[in-house]
Amino acid sequence: MQSDIANWRIPNIDNLLNPVEYTGLDEESVATIRNTIAHDMEKTGHPVQFHTVRSMPNYALFELEEEKQDLSVSEFQQMIHASEISEHGWIIGTREHRGHDKPIIDVFIRTGEHRPLTLRQVLDRPRFRNALNHTSFIAGINLRQQVLIRDLATLPNLIFVGEQGTTQNFVRSILVTLLLHNTPTQLRMALIGNKSDQYREVIEAPHILGRSFVSARDGTRLLNGMSREILRRQSLLRREGYSSIEHYNQSTIDNNLPVLPLLILLLDAVFTSEWLGQMNSWMPYLNSIIAHGAATGIHVLMTTPDLVTHELLHPLYAAFSTKIMTRTIAEDYLDHIDGFHHSLTRFVDAFIVESDLWHAAEVASVTPLDAKAVVQYWQGIAEKKVQNSLFHGMSYSSNLTGTKPSSTPPTPPVPRPPSPNSLTKATRVLSSQEMELPNEAITKTSSVVTITESQEIPSTDAPLRNTILAADDEIRNPLGYQADPSKHAHIELETIRQAQALATYLGWLGKGPLIDVLGVSVEQANLIINILKARQILERTESNTPRTKPKR
After folding, report:
1. How far apart (Å, rounded) are the C-alpha atoms in residues 106 and 537?
2. Residues 159 and 280 reside in one and the same domain
């Protein structure tokens, strides 16, 4: 198993996913179907010869040649569908087999014994195992049982068009594949939109940025933060003299430094009345991310029920060079696909549309047990990291002096990359149902935390938990300015959880990100930071911690 700089280890798929039990019909069943086809075609007066017979888990494929050679391809297809072959309770599809001078037809037959392809079966294919990049994923399996591999390194963004069940199966398959081949240091995911909480199988993975951002308000803030992250990465690449994020990350790997993680933003069902009502708020950020994000390692996966939901969204759809359209949506376009017979729609789930090229594809289903096994593997690694951190311990400084901020929000210093243990602890806190807050300084009223500014938030002797690096400009005074006993600040508990998610991604936390991304005031930003410090979510440090530049 491979490991990264933070000692996250890529799992062995053979030991993690359930073994494949069903591989297709046995030879006797295939022979029975073959003899039945031969007999039924003989009765039509057009006997056939068999060229190739293939048995797959999801169907059997027979290549047929009409012996008399007096039928066109279309007539041959009509003859097959009109024969008694269609009366055996099988699902039948046909297509012209290209590459032969003679009219040869591929006949697809699915019986009640066949099963859908699972992700494990496809991941075992040599073609995918030999894929060069950890950012590769399986877009589907074509009608020749070839794995359709795509790579986020070359595929900027992806939109899924169609009914919710099929599009979510596609997305789930891609997410689980990427989780299998990327550590939390290499890959982070944000789930955004009205249906983003439907991905329960993966939402507890350490790779996920906190939680699903269901509301348009929360989603807009995250998209705003990601658009700013693009600017930060662009500035970093220019300053360090790298032409691409791939070159930058390779340099950091060569120098044993953390990489800039690949960041996937999944937008699922953002076309509800709530989201459309606030479209002017989030659309500019999304357009910016789609246009500029891929070059900095930030990619968008998006779902939509159709391509005509809202006329103002048409330019957005056009920005996606690759679309995956479910078969129900694609039915209106099938006549324009060369050589595709309508009967084949029962053997595919969707079409991968790249410019003028249409690729019929079946999605590999992800079983709940396999998805759970993948997430539990990463959770287990994270738990071991936390235990190691607790065993070795960590020291803190408590010498705090007062400072007063300027009238404008400060620009946080860029700290060095977080330690592996800090990153691990940060991911673990996101799965907690309730944050523990110091009772001496906090009173709870519903979901609101009220903090008296005149009180210094105490430290705690509780076990160390989920430590993240804090920016130096936040550490001098628990409140960051001269306290006014008459003032109180109100902070939603959910906002504190969002702050933890933000800190997990950045590996540090300062007033700047809290103000820019979460939209809190300077006072609230100070209090949030010190709540997290008091509970040892953030480290207490006394010195500047600039990011270490990679050697070249």
Report:
1. 61
2. yes
